[in-house]
# Entry
Amino acid sequence: MKIKEMVPKLDAADRSVGPPTDPDVLIDVRGLRTYFHVMDGTVKAVDGVDFSLKRGQTLGLVGESGCGKSVTALSILQLIDIPPGEIAGGEIWFDGRDLLKMTTDQIRHVRGADIAMIFQEPMTSLNPVFTIGDQISEAIILHQHVNKKEAMSRAIEALAAVGIPDPARRVKQYPHEMSGGIRQRVMIAMAISCNPKLLIADEPTTALDVTIQAQILELIKELQVRTGAALLLITHDLAVVAETVQNVAVMYAGRIVETGPVEDVLLSPKHPYTQGLLNSIPALHKRGRELDVIRGVVPNPFRMPPGCKFEPRCPYAWEHCREAEPDLLVPPGTHDKSRCFLQAPENATRRQVFDRATVATVRGVIG
Amino acid sequence: MQSSNGTSPNKDGATSAGVAGVKSGNSGAPLLEVHNLRTYYPIRGGILRRHIGDVHAVDDVSLSINRGQTFGMVGESGCGKTTFGRTILRLERATAGTVSMDGQNVLALQGQDLKFMRRRMQLIFQDPYGSLNPRMPVSDIIGEGLLAQADSENRWGDRAIRDQRVGDFLEAVGLRRDYSRRYAHEFSGGQRQRIGIARALSLNPEFIVCDEPVSALDVSIQSQILNLLSELQRQFNLTYLFIAHNLSVVQYFCERIGVMYLGKLVEVADTDALYAHPRHPYTVALLSAIPVPDPRVRKKRLVLKGDVPSPANPPSGCRFHTRCWLRERLGNPEVCSTVDPPLMDMGGGQMSACHFADKVSAEAADEAAARQSVVDTAVAES
# Structure
């Protein structure tokens, strides 16, 4: 197709086989496809996702429910139930090894040790019948081969590191004896207890109150800097992303639709969906004035639009968007990549309307 | 947006121009007045299940909401904001105080009078999944309230009349008429919330308690529902008590805001005043906790330490004193831990329950400047 010839195609260039050449790259996900085969057909929850994360860097994965952001994280850790799930394609290079080619035993040594995850629900992701000391030391004993006593003292250290007062008493308590904020701190303590190289946080503050959310975000940022771990933060909240990470990838319908440094993506969005998400932040609007909305709903996974997956909801779409799906394009003069035909050079005229709307949106963000 | 194509159910005297006038100012007369409302839950213990204490869920709350106004109630989970809303609606038993709606004492009503009052005040629930009966078609979910309130005048007991009305209100909330035959599981979260709104509206209420109506929804759907709620407010001249924990939503949606902490109302003000110059240290902390979407801003936070204390055993004096940054700054004055400060008028319609309310603004600026955030320090060290 014409557009593909004119614009350097990133996907093709990135999808070379073999480990990444840059030793600084900690994790490199290429062409990841995770499908679920259910009664009504196949749900392509993640359909061709590429991203990489350097050591000690932070990346935010943003999108609404069902966009595939959590499935991406679970695919990295291979916590997908197979069947009905299937990792239908792609490579996940972590520290020089392809996680998707590992045996169950090999991946078990990575999980919890090199890659740790903080889950959304601090209420349900802790086991109610064990003390938190038992739960933290379980991973330490497994991965660091120490005895129970040593593991318990490391668990106490980990609890102290996440700012839990009186950790020696807390290790003997059960999850129900703690508040939501403390439980989330316990989850974080568990995650950092084996000094992971990559920390995945899946909506770590969504279930918490604002004041506790502020505490937990500060804690995650502080630990990230202190331990030098890379951070993959999954969230639906653009404001949380703005405060926490360096790079961001916006997901929609199983694909990354825009990715780049956080300043570029939030202060000059290049994809209509990112623009719509920013417009949906109520505080950026005058009271009494109608909110700009992203019309409609996410597409039915069994009846995906043939062209651009955002086309049915996109205010800028034209016929071409219905027929073909864009690749991630790099608009000239930016560090951003956007999966939108508007960013192709020949559509500059159409892009003017979009750019004007972006200016108005960003004015709201800057305030 | 979700236009109802002129088929929307009529309600007298709700021309959009006239109502907009009420909305923009505080000139409307009070519709709802609450005085010294308390809702306690008994704690029982021992073999005899004796009454050994109380959970002070709502403790001495007074406020008034004008007709056509949207009053926001914010606070952390467990602060009593939902219990407050439910007590007003007579869904929880009040321990003391009065609630008057249009001059009638809601808490004293009984029998037919109470039943008639229930038509006038309705509730929209937080969870669009849990609040719709999965065994009922939408026509019954919305029609149930109509059936309960049927009388010879409205003839809602008549299936045809009821179904007509259900269809009208489905259209009013932007859904198709024929959805009335479907079941809840066939709808998305946003559509379910619209059904919940249609159910609340179908009895022609004047006052609606919206209990976190958008917090379970995705961001793009959230703004659709907020737009719908504003449009319906204009169309039906509704008064909202909007309970929420998302301060960004409240800032956009509400004209006046009450901040609750451990069952007490600690500050009440018009929205712009509250966000521009909060007069209670807890409000300052809440506002400073909101993340901002501008990545270049590195906010200096007044992060509160610890968790909310238990409402079964609230701290003495000012309930916030155990976590208060202002008290610490002022050298822990004794009055904070001994005397419970009343809600005091600060002028301009702003009220604050803090012994040092006049010092809040200046001290907040100094505190924010003084307090390097933990991260900045960590970054500097590394």
About this structure: Residues 1-15 of chain A have pLDDT under 50 and may be disordered. Chain A touches chain B through 53 residues (CB under 8 Å).
